[in-house]
Amino acid sequence: MGEPLRTPEDYELFLYTLTERFSSIRSSTVTFVRRGVSLGRVAGEICFDYGLRLVIRERLVWQRLPVVIDSYGYEVWQGDEKLYWYDSQPHPNEPDLESSYPHHKHISPNAKHHQVPAPDNGVNLRVFIGLICRS
């Protein structure tokens, strides 16, 4: 399969075969739920080796193809500790985030208020899983 976000069906196939595609994924509860003819929601958790857990939420739109991730949040946990997260919540008054607006990463210390630009003007689930699998 090429780009996982070409059609809603392509993305569903990608999501529901994650454990087959990535050997470091131990389990997945990710679901894709259609909300009308051009809107979908993705939510769930992916458990990786070494006790890492990824909590996912995405809002997808596809009035035209390809599918677009309209908003997202990806949280990385180890046990009960949230290590960091990426999201697309705009922070328009943060000049340090202009290069990847609205995409950014929350990091320690004080992760709620400490953000850095996201790589490559944002991330998607495929990129994010790749980042986790390399670490």
Task: Give your account of this protein's structure.
The protein is an alpha+beta fold and 135 residues long. It has one domain (8-134). The protein has helices at 8-16, 18-21, 125-134; strands at residues 25-28, 31-34, 39-48, 52-61, 68-78, 81-87, 104-106, 115-117. Strands 1, 2, 3, 4, 5, 6, 7 and 8 form an eight-stranded antiparallel sheet that branches. A hairpin with a 6-residue loop joins β4 (52-61) and β5. The model has no long low-confidence stretch (mean pLDDT 85).
How would you briefly describe this protein structure?
The protein is α+β, with helices and mostly antiparallel strands and 135 residues long. It has one domain (8-134).
Strand pairing plus helix content: what structural class? alpha+beta
Quickly count the helices: 3
Based on Cα principal axes, name the global outline: globular
Low-confidence stretches: none
Portion in helices: 10-25%
Largest sheet: 8 strands, antiparallel
- Tell me the Rg in angstroms: 15 Å
In round numbers, the mean pLDDT is: 85
Distance between the termini: 25 Å
Order of helices and strands: HHEEEEEEEEH
Strand content: 35-45%
Keywords:
135 residues, alpha+beta, 8-stranded antiparallel sheet, 3 helices, globular
Write the layout of secondary structure elements.
Elements (H helix, E strand, L loop, with lengths): L7 H9 L1 H4 L3 E4 L2 E4 L4 E10 L3 E10 L6 E11 L2 E7 L16 E3 L8 E3 L7 H10 L1
Antiparallel strand pairs: 1-3, 2-3, 3-4, 4-5, 5-6, 6-7, 7-8
